[in-house]
Amino acid sequence: MKFQGFGIQIIIISVLGISLLAAGLAATSAYAFVKITSPAKGQHVPVGNILISGTSSSNATNHCAVSVIINGIKPYQQATSTGNKGPNDYSNWTFAATPKYGTIKEGVNKMTAKYSCPQNINLTKFYSVNVTGVAAKGQLQPIPPTPANNAKTTGGAFPPSLPSVNPSIVNESKHSKILKGSK
User: Fold this and answer.
1) 3-state SS string over 56-122?
2) Is 54 helix (H, G, I), strand (E, B) or coil?
3) pLDDT in tens, 92-103
4) Residue pLDDT, tens place only, 52-77
């Protein structure tokens, strides 16, 4: 009889342990986060290279990391950990966007940070920020194609050619005579 009571206690403890483990995983998943702190949502930023920074629930021992994409260009690129507890501490992180990977374009740009833990495939979090790329003052912008400046590719002049102007109309000496004669 004593062994049966002991067996029931083991079953209860096992069930309780599994329940606590499941609750712990759920709490870990709920606690996990990633956030882009700079640039801020909706901020106007210069076109070109940009430094993105943020925070996450990572620490030096959980082996979780942060990666970033800009405007959906995959694959995700590994951010640099800047947490104060070593090279695997992504509690603070940065990512430098350069032409090698992708840069801020004029108009709306979407940046997404991904927090993932390789040991727990179900523990992945995302955070996105939209910013607006603006050209610096004095920076030349490409002229968008229009029918007028795209005539060579359309095979003809657009709009149709205007009639030529009679050069005698614009001759200044005639205008001067006309003005003198009207007095």
Assistant:
1) ECCCCCCCCEEEEEECCCCCCEECEECCCCCCCCCCEEEEEECCCCCCECCEEEEEEEEEEECCEEE
2) strand
3) 999 999 998 889
4) 999 999 988 888 999 999 999 999 99
